[in-house]
Amino acid sequence: MLGEKIKYKAIVIGASAGGLLALSTLLEIIPSNYAIPIIIVQHRSKEPRGLLEEILQSKCNVKIKQVDEKEKIENGIVYIAPPDYHLLIENDFTFSLSVDEPIRFSRPSIDVLFESAATAYKGNLIGIILTGTNNDGMLGIQSIAANNGLTIVQEPEEARFPTMPLAAIHTKKVKHILTLAEIQTFLLEINTD
């Protein structure tokens, strides 16, 4: 185990370029009865709604679904931000979608998800940054750390595009730098419901 025994209530993951492969690798080992919701922002084009979710679902046992406005967050589901919407988590643990301006050229923005999740979940949150070509997620990692959440970044040498992991590491707020295999192990270890 990577740290003291904490009952985590949510996992947020940010990915950009190269993210489909990284997410597939992480999620394929998650059981269908996983005890913690996983909420993902993958930078994506305005492809037909649900294409990313269909691809991931074909490789995974856990339920994968695109977020709906005002949906209540539940365990055993991997939620994906819809294309062209920012995804936020409200303090009552429901989702909110926004069409505010793109941040760092991205909508959905990793920072928006991570910052709202940090406010809602405080120290019961895990934030993970995967491969990507910009610095989205940097502010979100700082926000999670400031709220005593756990911050993890994919090992930049392993990432297909290391820019995003490196940007997060440069904040000096990342607790663990791990390979995808090590993140998989950790995700299984904390499944304690």
Can you walk me through this structure?
The protein has 193 residues and is α/β, with parallel strands linked by helices. The chain has one domain: Methylesterase CheB, C-terminal domain (Rossmann fold, 3-Layer(aba) Sandwich), CATH 3.40.50. The chain has six helices and nine strands, in the order E-H-E-H-E-E-E-E-H-E-H-E-H-E-H. The strands form two sheets. It has a seven-stranded parallel β-sheet, with helices on both faces. Helix 1 runs parallel beside helix 6, helix 3 runs parallel beside helix 4 and helix 4 runs parallel beside helix 5. The model has no long low-confidence stretch (mean pLDDT 93).
How would you concisely characterize the structure shown here?
The protein has 6 helices and 9 strands, in the order βαβαββββαβαβαβα. It is an alpha/beta fold and 193 residues long. The strands form 2 sheets. It has a 7-stranded parallel β-sheet with strand order 3-4-2-1-7-8-9, sandwiched between helices. Strands 5-6 form a two-stranded antiparallel ribbon.
Shape: globular
Q: What is the count of DSSP helices, taking H or I runs of 4+ residues?
A: 6
* Structural domain tally: 1
Spatial strand arrangement across the major sheet: 3-4-2-1-7-8-9
Gyration radius (Cα, Å) is: 15 Å
Query: Which H/E pattern describes the elements?
Result: EHEHEEEEHEHEHEH
Give the DSSP E fraction (strand runs of 2 or more residues): 15-25%
Give the helix level as a range of percent. 25-40%
Biggest β-sheet strands, sense, barrel:
7 strands, parallel
Average per-residue pLDDT, rounded, comes to 93
CATH topology: Rossmann fold
Low-pLDDT sequence parts = none
